Amino acid sequence: MQSISLLVVLFAALLTPLLMAKFNIHSLPTAVAEIIVGIILGKSLFGWVVSNDVLEELRTLGVIVLIFLSGMEIDFSLFKPQKQSGRKIGAAPLAFLSYGSIVLMALAAAWVLDLLGLYHHIVFAAIIFATVALGVVIAALKEKELLSKPFGQTVLLLAALGEVLPLIALTVYQNLNGTSSRSVWLLLLIFVAAIFLLHRFRKPYQWFAEIDKSTTQLDIRLAFFLIVTLVTVAESVGAENILGAFLAGMVMKLLKPREETEDKLTSIGYGFFIPIFFIMTGANMNLPAMFKDPASLALIPVLLIAFYAAKALLIPLLLMRFRKHNALAGMLLTSTTITLVIPALSIGKSLGIISSTQSAAFTLAAVITCIASPILFNTFYVAEKDDVKKTRVHIIGANLMTVPIVQQLTRGLYEVRLYTDDPVKFKTYNSEAPVTLLADVTEPTLQNAGVFDADIIVLAHFDEDKNFAVAELALAAKVPRIIARFDAKNATDGRYDELAAQGVEVYNTFETNIAMLRSLIETPSTLKILQDTTAGIFEIVVNNRRFAGLEVKNLPYVNDITISQIFRGDHFIAPHGDTQLHLGDHIIFSGDKAQIGQMRAEFEKVN
């Protein structure tokens, strides 16, 4: 029966997403679907899955890997002070204030349960009510491409707090109320161990990437070493293994793993361990026994109300920054909870403070929030004012080459400014394009004019000494991209190579013309593509996480464009149909000019 039960669980894990895709079930999180499948296959209905030692070990590994991956989802940049737009409250202060309201309302909801005589352990219930399913929240925000926007950042940070703080509180509660004689201060040892491992592997991890190969997979070995080490430390000091797993995920995240590493860890987790955990969670529930108990049955709607009531104060708080529909949508989405509820209930059982039927009621209520909340979020969310930033391009040097470029770029997703320090050229070209006249190109003048407040600076002066001087100033101001014209470079002057070594993109109009003529001779269609009114050669950067990990053959627009090369890191790769895209990839392709605006908006959106 052990082998048969394992076979049934693995087949169910394979079949569940296939059926969801077949019947276009997109609003239901896969984790919830797997719990429902477990309920059907387990002791509640068919009884085909019987718990055994092997499945319980795999179930434990599943929750450890799930919590580890949740730790890797934490975006630590959200905890840094952020610029506030106007007088609006920032994402971080609003999220911390909002989570404070969740804690208060969770305690109030738990107190009401105690007054009603339904459940008497107020602190434990409050911890459960204060949890947020970070994975479900991230999936919902990713689907709507909101992670880079103020609303998405606020809700994401709120969800991160709703996973981190209850986990720590749960560990402390278990330590204080369990049979262990260890001091609660020993819990600090696990944090010390996490900090030690982070510092120990920060530098070697970069070296791992250089010597890694397919038969060693050093990054994955390190990940599981961190998991086992911190889980062992956690259990040794009387804490739950999930705290160690969560800290291991945070350490791994702070090591800044490559995109491929995160993909491989996600594949291992969600491909094998995590589905077993969710299916076995459902299989171990005994709904018929719960339905025979009127008190437990009555507990489900009360718990469901409590899960939503704990987040009720979010609506007036989110209204401080967002419109009414989105404040409601944010409250509903953060009411989603499942990730920590199930491990918490296991702790409650081990402490003897919750019965099996009560545990099933908590689980069912949490499952219902995972079904209803994402659907309601998608229903109520209304797009805020479009805050997609245009690429800011500042060009210094007004001439016959730059003015047409300004005229063309301003029609797309670019905010272009043209500067000159020549009054004659200002008078000549100001009627053709908006030109700003500078007194000179010294640092104070350029700073006061906001020239360096740009994503791209183009130095198009005929005077190369000016271009060189301004390029150095732009480097000091940390402008992301600097393009500089140098037509008559002195072969004995190494300063141009110095600029290039620091990332300045140097171009030479003479060399460009030679390259164009050669291309025209060798590939006659090149000039036709460049001059054609509908076709063109373009480059876009993959900033949108929605496209990270997608194979080229599955990209939108792939049938309308021809991808010639992908520039990744510091080298070009020849793409094939199964080539996976990574964040930061530069895609060079030919296609219809009419589509480039929409493609750039989708691929270059920071998400």
How many individual β-strands?
A: 10
- Summarize the amount of helix as a percent range: 55-70%
Reading side by side through the largest sheet, how are the strands ordered?
3-2-1-4-5-6
Average of per-residue pLDDT values: 82
Task: Point out poorly predicted stretches.
Answer: none
Distance between the termini: 46 Å
Count of DSSP H/I helices? 25
Computed over alpha carbons, the radius of gyration is 29 Å
Work out the strand percent. Answer: 5-15%
- State the secondary-structure class: alpha/beta
Name the overall outline: elongated
Main beta sheet: strand number and arrangement? 6 strands, parallel
Family: Belongs to the monovalent cation:proton antiporter 2 (CPA2) transporter (TC 2.A.37) family.
Organism: Lacticaseibacillus hegangensis
Pfam family, one: TrkA_N
Keywords: Antiport, Ion transport, Membrane, Transmembrane, Transmembrane helix, Transport
